[in-house]
Amino acid sequence: MKTLIAIALLSQSLAWGQYKLEAGGAAPVAADQVAKAGAKIVDGAGKTVAEVWLRTPIPTGAKSDQQAVTLPEVAHGTFMGLIRFAAKYEDRRGQTIKPGTYTLRYSYFPQNGDHQGVAPQRDFLLLTPVEADPDLAKNPTFEQLMEMSRKASGTPHPCVFSFWKEEESFEAGLKQLGEHDWVLYTKDGGIKLGIILVGKAEG
């Protein structure tokens, strides 16, 4: 099934209308596992900001016993796609991400009391520099993935995108969520997904 992708970027200083979506090229790695063409975001000056390639189809298996996750059938650490930034970028926590290509892997935040109110669900995508993630077929443990993603953020906190399986009907594309967040809604192999790619975490 063709992966439908629409992505929007927003910053506090630039309006949505200054960005547009274009078809991207082939993925720089793992081209046999992700969408054939990426989704390319360009700014008002025509400069590429980011390209995204989601894995298709998403591999699923037996459901885990994890609570408050929307994709229990996806194993922890599963390779979910790639993202490439053309320039420095900031995640929702304000952490700077260097230009380059990053893997996206499935994880969830721990139930230790430190993440209350972060999101309604525990599902997240963690970024790792592609050169630090050479074996895409291997699913890292929770601690291994946290350490890998700290190489993307350069801080003690991993670099993450809030991510979930969407139960409501939607049209693939961009929608604003709250005051700061912009969400990619997409359908991948029959699984409906939402990903906050740009925004600002509250609190």
Walkthrough of the structure:
The protein has 203 residues and is mainly β. The protein has one domain (16-198). It is 6% helix and 34% strand. The protein has one helix and twelve strands. The protein has one helix at residues 142-153, and strands spanning 20-23, 39-42, 48-54, 79-85, 89-90, 96-97, 100-108, 123-129, 160-165, 173-177, 181-188, 191-198. The strands form two sheets. A ten-stranded antiparallel β-sheet has the order 1-2-3-4-7-8-9-12-11-10, covered by helices on one side. β11 (181-188) and β12 form a beta hairpin. The protein is globular, with a radius of gyration of 16 Å. The N and C termini lie far apart (39 Å). The model is unreliable at 1-18 and 112-117 (pLDDT under 50).
Give the tally of structural domains.
1
- What is the helix tally? 1
> What is the first-to-last residue Cα distance?
39 Å
Structural class category? mainly beta
Please give the largest β-sheet: 10 strands, antiparallel
Order of helices and strands: EEEEEEEEHEEEE
Task: Give the proportion of residues in helices.
Answer: under 10%
Residue runs with pLDDT of under 50 for 5 or more positions: 1-18, 112-117
Percentage beta strand: 25-35%
